[in-house]
Amino acid sequence: MAEEKSLNFLEEIIEHDLNAGKHVSIVTRFPPEPNGYLHLGHAASICLNFGLSKKYGGYTNLRFDDTNPTTEETEYVENIKNDVRWLGFEWKHELYASDYFEQLYLFAIKLIREGYAYVDDNNSETIAAEKGTPTTPGTNSKYRNRSVEENLQLFEEMKAGKYKDGERVLRAKIDMAHPNMLMRDPVIYRIKHAHHHRTGDNWCIYPLYDFAHGQSDSIEHVTHSICTLEFVPHRELYDWFIEKLNIYPSRQYEFARRNISYTIMSKRKLLQLVNEKYVDGWDDPRMPTVSGLRRRGYTAASIRDFCDRAGIAKRENVTELSLLEFCVREDLNKIALRRMVVFNPIKVVLTNYNEDNEFVSVEDNPEDANGGFRDVPFSKELYIERDDFMENPPKKFFRLFPGGMVRLKGAYIIKCDEVVKDDAGNIIQLNCSYIPESKSGNDTSNIKVKGTLHWVSVAHAITAEVRLYDRLFKVEDPSGEAGDFKDYINENSLEIIPAVYAEPALKNAVQDERYQFLRKGYFALDKYSTEEKLIFNRTVTLKDTWAKEQQKNS
RNA sequence: UGCCCGAUAGUAUAAGGGUAGUACAUCAGAUUUUGGUUCUGAGUGUCUUGGUUCGAAUCCAGGUCGGGCAACCA
């Protein structure tokens, strides 16, 4: 088999750098800001950064970009670390931009000394006004030409806490008429008398992103600093600081963030859903967060596979949710234990069945040649799915109907003899006969049936709550629609069925195990599940070509 | 009126001057004790106009369309 070599643009750059001898190995970093939970977009970045350093022999640092004490919290740090590990990656060094506050401060002093930075007394409104617009040049601040000595002293006083928030800032001195707005004397230090989650009250001046990220990359000798497209215009500034500071030349490369249909990938918006209680926290199973996906029953392997298949490029994209679903189904099909659960029951009475009960042996996973079997109790009174019976079936309906025959999975073939209704005409029971010689494993009946149904013995059934999830939004691109994205929330994204009937084996369900409820979908235990009250989340449905056909006909 | 990115089937990605390929999705069929899985097959694409070249998705120029840039956020 020919080895297919298909590189994404970053791999090409890296291979080029390696071949050219620019680097002997590479260093990447994953730089989350600890102000929210990780989502699928971050997962893509994680797979990219860690994947690249693994492929090309190097390592990846986990660096928290914690330069804004007012939005960042330790709680987020812990959850982010947990999510990265769960995804299956281990960082070389755990670092924080705040580790470099002293060094960053010295960098700022250096810039001032060399005439590349100045203290501005203007407030943010004035600074914004003087910045101009994309099509008109800005104007110089009246504080732009202060002496080095004065700048040094004022900056020192800023650091010492002499001024209130917003009273003064430190700005890089570049060009107020620069076509790139970011080069128009960007603010690099601001005053914030705020408690930092790591440095406490040591500082009251904090560097901005542009004066922290690139320098942190440089300090760590990150060879390839990979970020998303919105930072493209920042690259010019990134390089400017490296040049003026004369420090290790990390290079920034940008790729398009991964969007997924029927959801949103903005931390700000996700936070809104959490705060305004549209969802049950960051790890609500409908959220595109790593923790939400985990709670829903997604496997780390399936998320990695998704990132892999979706690929990486520089063009804006909205990847179809169906690819993600394909990836989980593929993984879960291999590992999930099969169990029978009836959601909406109708009672079947086997009129010719006399034994109290027996046990039939059913495989745990037909995909797994080494998989085990379990004994499932079978008896005279069973539940089957109400949808699996129709009094007047359409063509190609090969489930149960009056006079029709189906196999009960792992057990016998049965025939529907009589439909029992209540006074209102509702079907309340099906009287059936079973074919004794049709038992699974030693079927001598020679009867062929088209349908096989899941079932559960009434007397042995246990109950559980199941939670069925649908897409969180009704439109493919909620952020792209007019108006507020919340207008497009799918109000039917969660359906709770308080009590379904399950085979007894599910009594022993455990948290990390994945289950396939036969013909229903893949399920996993929710974090709130207890021994007294089992709660299962539906991770994803099974593909259902019958339902699809029904939809087409209606 | 500025600067910067980008454009290949429905979607996401390959092809780096030489037959436009893969996956998901879609459709059709086979197998199946899950209408699942598996297997087979099908259709659909290079934004546009010029140029260079024997030959262009690829190189060049103009245009069109989409996105980003005026936070003391990252």
TrEMBL record:
Record's GO cellular component terms: cytosol
Location in the cell: Cytoplasm
Residues covered by the Glutamyl/glutaminyl-tRNA synthetase class Ib catalytic domain: 26-333
Listed Pfam families: tRNA-synt_1c (PF00749), tRNA-synt_1c_C (PF03950), tRNA-synt_1c_C2 (PF20974)
Annotated keywords: Aminoacyl-tRNA synthetase, ATP-binding, Cytoplasm, Ligase, Nucleotide-binding, Protein biosynthesis
Chain residues that bind L-glutamine: D65, Y209
Family note: Belongs to the class-I aminoacyl-tRNA synthetase family.
PANTHER family: GLUTAMATE--TRNA LIGASE (PTHR43097:SF5), GLUTAMINE-TRNA LIGASE (PTHR43097)
Protein name: Glutamine--tRNA ligase
Lineage, opening ranks: Bacteria, Pseudomonadati, Bacteroidota, Chitinophagia, Chitinophagales
